[in-house]
Design a protein that fits this description.
This protein is an alpha/beta fold. It is about 40% helix and about 10% strand. The strands form two sheets. A six-stranded parallel β-sheet has the order 4-5-6-1-7-8, with helices on both faces. Strand 2 and strand 3 form a beta hairpin. Helix 11 packs across helix 12 and helix 11 runs parallel beside helix 13. The chain is elongated.
Length: about 475
Amino acid sequence: MSYYPPYSPGERQLPPHVRQHLAAGLSEIRHPVGIHLELESRLSRLIRWGYASRNPLSRGFQKSVDERVGRIQDARDNEGSPQDLVIQPSAPEGAATGLTFLGTTGIGKTAGMQMVLDGYPQVVIHSNYGDRSFTRSQVVWLNLQCPSDGSIKTVCANFFAAMDAAHSALRTQTNYTLDFVKSRSTVRTLVPSMARVAAQHGLGLLVLDEVQDLRQRGSRELLSFLVQLVNEIGVPVVLIGGVDALPALSDQFRQARRGATEGDMVVGPAENGSGWRDLCEVFWRYQYTSKETPMTQAHVDALFEGSQGITQYLVTIYKLAQIRAISTGIEEVTPALIRSVARDGLVQAGPVLRTMRRGDRELLDRLGDVLPPQGTDYVPFLRGDAPEASSLPNEKKRVSDTDPSDNSGKTKGGSKTSSGPSTETVSTDTIEEPKTPAKTTISLPDLLEGKDEEKSAYETLAGKGLVAQNVWKGIVQEN
């Protein structure tokens, strides 16, 4: 499941512009952790038990397919409201179920799923089985995007396109899109055709990604249609999405779906600890600055502060920190530089990340896609070392890298108050720039070294009267 791009220490001596491009390749790293192994185990059981009752060599298999597709056709002919679409299960008990994989935006749900799926051949071409002739292309998995309007017609069209794409590099190419998706095609004709194609190719797993994009108007009908596919054809269905999809799935899918024997996986941000340090070490090996820098706990903590345990931001911050170190000539990634990049390189995500640091659960719940709703049990992407670790990163004590304009930890007289989570409302729309005194000429390396090392580089620059974006462009120079 893993993938580590080729790397040589000699690449640190390449020209700066080449090394900046190499640093951009950090996002290609795929490093499995415990969550991915658990996901692989559940998908493995789903696929294998889904095939248990669908033996294409068994007597009466084709007749069974015809009967099941016929039942789906009858359901479409007799449908009324979306509620009428739910069909009682007719597949053998335990023939197929499903899995819901939800998590915080940015923890790598889609990438993790693809890591697991890539461990299976997507298409297997059969010519015989034992001493029997058996010609068939078996499709082990298909991965589709969920339409935001919940359109079943769109799902069917995407299904046929994905089936054609899976066969495109093989001798047995298919043209299902041309055969079934026409201007006058309707859900009534597309659904039975999709079910028959899935059955004939022995589809092992259907993955529907980005289910949080489902709008209320079409979600119930689409989810009920997926239940039809599970019940009638025996194809396991996996739903992937953000934690904001949880309420809709719980309300609308609970009564519709059969029992999901593989349960649900709800994943939150990583916690700081040895597991987080090990993950940072994986990325830290890819250094493109001319000066090699050993990773310290200060680096690990700075990366956690900036990313709040969200892996997408971990990769982005480390990548931008290297690019900034190369472009400014510092050629070294320091904790202060990491904090600086996290502060002014993640402008859109910054307010949310600062809210996570403050532990403002009320505001995080209003945002919807950061953490699962309160009362929902979930597992962190990586567990911290302390057994009593909070489910909300850094919920206890706030660090001293808050904005200079943030007075949530001070009284009117300027003295610090309790270090507990702030209860003040945090704006997520704007980021106030710190007030800057008159400009002073000073070299950039001096700002990031020495006594200012453990302070935010952004605060240091502001205190010297320098605007960060101008410094990075090399505007402020010694005369």
